[in-house]
Specification:
Elements: H1 2-11, H2 34-40, E1 43-58, E2 61-75, E3 81-86, E4 108-115, E5 118-121, E6 128-130
Parallel strand pairs: 3-5
Antiparallel strand pairs: 1-2, 1-4, 2-3, 4-5, 4-6
Length: 142
């Protein structure tokens, strides 16, 4: 009986403010080609991160949200203008050990996934690629 009571009490710790909880450690997929990234993404765009705009949660971690100026939508249901995109954090350790890939500005190819109506980069390290003007697309769109 005491074991069951302990399990119930400890299992509910995440509901108590300030309680210690464990977060999910994600084993991220590694795409071998840019075509695989394009094929697996819910949306793909060419754009330029303009500024940070708050935070969102993913897999129990805080993710930086950025306002991105959308130049061209290559796949998916994004409109033109600006979009709010959360930069997927690395899990199990420091959130952005190599820096947030949307912080360094510049024109980028951005591969996205939809999580509960919010756009996130698909993975922490393979979803935002520098893409200077005049560079040909590294994948087929059709």
């Amino acid at each position: 009986m005491m074991g069951v009571l302990c399990c119930v009490l400890l299992g509910g710790c995440w509901l108590v403010p300030g309680a210690v909880r464990s977060d999910v450690c994600v084993d991220w997929v590694s795409f071998e080609t840019m075509q695989q990234r394009f094929d697996h993404a819910s949306a793909v765009l060419i754009g330029k991160p303009l500024k940070r705009d708050g935070e969102a949660r993913s897999y129990g971690y805080q993710a930086n949200v950025h306002v991105v100026e959308v130049e061209q939508v290559l796949k998916g249901g994004l409109g033109h203008g600006t979009a709010r995109i959360a930069s997927m954090p690395v899990t199990c350790g420091k959130t952005y050990p190599d820096g947030d890939p949307l912080d360094d500005g510049g024109r980028k190819l951005i591969f996205l996934t939809d999580q509960n109506g919010e756009w996130f980069t698909m993975t922490p390290d393979q979803s935002a690629v520098q893409f200077p003007a005049g560079t040909p697309l590294p994948f087929q769109t059709g």
